[in-house]
Write a structure and sequence with these properties.
single chain; mainly beta; Immunoglobulin-like; five-stranded antiparallel sheet; 41% strand
Length: 320
């Protein structure tokens, strides 16, 4: 169940890619889906020039703090009783996830164990279905469209616009599945109001809209940042300095400098890096000119990633 909830957001919209759709979405666009007894709130929490942040909150419909006709109020009150609450940031160019945070646990996490097929879904093209390819109601001979709701009340909709994707055979759990997205053709909604995922035999997951709107401030007060951290424990090996830097993808890549503790003059250095267990192990070539010897330095850095910052080591060292 959870894999659907963490994945379906990244399905591209309106007959082209979700990447293109992001360019027309607005901060605060939100939707609430119901799938069985599970409710899923999704919103565009924030948008920058290079990234988009998604807020996603799950709850059972039996949650005493939540009313189906006013889910947004529950969100504004902090999503009490939620079964899951996450924020994740992705690059608007590629869809790659660069940061993920769980507010209830006050901790960052990653998708290494069960990563969403973000790159493929983010850039996937979707085809609009003509009436001849859609289900027809026998009694009326009209094209079938799922019910749309706002604040859990039915909204008149003559016919949805349907986009469909048949997933190719591969090693993913989407292999050979059919995914349908229904939109209201009279609106410019960011999210489809119904998502239908089926195999060749039966439906596997159907997400029905119970509310949708704009300008939601979200439940999270802020999205914290993991600023780069140069860890203590420098090692010198010949002409090289070995160090470890904890740096999330949101701030990678970075430049490194030697900063003279007395003059505060910084000198750029060349280095090699290898990522292991979320940390970058760097091998820095130290300058050998006499003018650098006998002085005390700290290691400093400047991030060049989607988010920019400067960072310094606490530990200092000398060049002998």
């Amino acid at each position: 169940m959870m894999r659907w909830m963490l994945l379906f957001l990244f399905i591209p919209l309106f007959g082209f890619s979700f990447k293109e759709k992001c360019l027309t979405s607005s901060k605060g666009d939100y939707i609430v889906y119901q799938q069985g007894h599970q409710l899923i709130y999704l919103s565009i929490y924030d948008i920058t020039a290079n990234t988009i942040v998604i807020e996603e909150i799950h709850s059972l419909d039996s949650n005493q703090h939540l009313k189906l006709n006013n889910v947004l109020d529950w969100v504004l009150q902090g999503g009490k009783g939620a079964s899951q609450w996450i924020l994740y940031e992705m690059l608007s160019e590629t869809g790659a996830i660069i940061e993920a945070y769980a507010p209830t646990k006050r901790s960052f996490f990653n998708f290494d164990q069960d990563p969403p097929l973000l790159s493929r879904l983010f850039l996937t093209k979707w085809d609009e279905m003509p009436d001849s390819r859609r289900k027809i109601i026998p009694s009326t001979k009209k094209v079938w469209s799922p019910q749309k709701k706002i604040k859990n009340l039915p909204v008149h909709l003559e016919k949805s616009t349907l986009y469909r994707k048949f997933w190719e055979k591969d090693q993913s759990f989407l292999s050979e599945l059919r995914i349908d997205l229904h939109f209201d053709p009279q609106q410019t909604d960011t999210f489809p109001y119904m998502i239908d995922i089926q195999n060749s035999v039966r439906p596997l997951a159907r997400f029905y809209q119970v509310d949708q709107g704009k300008k939601s401030p979200g439940a999270a007060k802020y999205f914290p940042r993991r600023h780069p951290d140069i860890e203590n424990g420098f090692q010198k090996k010949g002409n090289f300095l070995l160090a470890s830097i904890d740096c999330s993808p949101a701030f990678y890549p970075f430049e490194l400098y030697l900063q003279d503790v007395q003059s505060l003059i910084s000198t750029p250095v060349s280095f090699e890096s290898e990522k292991k267990s979320g940390r970058y192990h760097v091998k820095i070539l130290l300058p050998q000119e006499d003018s650098y010897k006998g002085k005390t330095y700290r290691l400093s850095g400047k991030s060049l990633g989607p988010h920019r910052t400067k960072f310094d080591s606490i530990e200092v060292f000398e060049i002998n």
